[in-house]
Amino acid sequence: MGPDVQLVSVFPSGPHGGNPAPIVVDAAGMSDADMQQITRSFGLESGFVLPPPPASDCDFEFRFWVPNHEMSMCGHATVGALWLLDRLGKLPGDDLAIWTKSGRVEARIRERTKNGAAVEISQPAGRVEALPDADRDRADIIEILGIRPNDLAPQPIRNASTSRVKTLVPLKSVAILDSLNPDFTRIEDLCDRIGSTGLYPYAMFDKDAQIVDARQFPKSSGYPEDAATGIAASALAFGLLADRMVVASERRITVRQGRAMQRPSEILVRFRLENGRPNGCWLGGAVRLEEYATVKP
Questions:
Q1: Neighbours of 129 (CB within 10 A)
Q2: Which of 290 and 48 is assigned the larger pLDDT?
Q3: What is the pLDDT of residue 23?
Q4: Which of 9, 205, 212, 227 is the most exposed place for a label (fewest CB within 10 A)?
Q5: How many whole angstroms separate alpha carbon 7 and alpha carbon 9?
């Protein structure tokens, strides 16, 4: 018998939304091959909960896989695993520390409702950088996304990261974003060249309310598009801050994703402030347990 795998949908906006994530809440003793096999059987980013390493001063270790490889960090699988652990009564408290291959991640339960725990996880301060060869890279991104130069918003295309580098591509309108039909065969080579793990085109929906729409086309995860990408949303928040599209406050930034996949999602990001300046952010959103919750792959 294999381990129990429970399927959660993370960051859903509506009954069919969110990014599904298989979670194994007791992955102690599983090999890398075991974890990858489960991930490939679902074809989805998956999370595995293990005891923390000795002397890590953490409550758990989380590992993450996509069908093609292991990842150092996965925002939606972390939120989903913590929500599930709370539902199962396995959390030692409301303030937690998680060990990941990208380092220590803080987590907290803000409240508990009839829909389960409201989980937030930490991300470090983001880095926002110019593309290695801005003119060439911009031209290639335009061609790969199948858009025209005047479909771009005035803000620059840039790389941004909290845990993994994403390439932020600002577009003039949500309609342009929704109509994208990328050449997926070229994304991996482009991302390799520009030092990115995925293209993250976005369009401002409501600047005053800090609501942004986005889509994620990953470099080499084993699927062409992602329904909700917490790490990319965190990176986007710092890109928006650098472009003065949002303010340095604890106001919620809402990143909507997944609509083009019929999996509408809503990711919530809030800056963590120290002396009035962001030194990281909190990432959270809703979670739903799927009806076919426990399966044996």
A1: 12
A2: 48
A3: 97
A4: 205
A5: 7
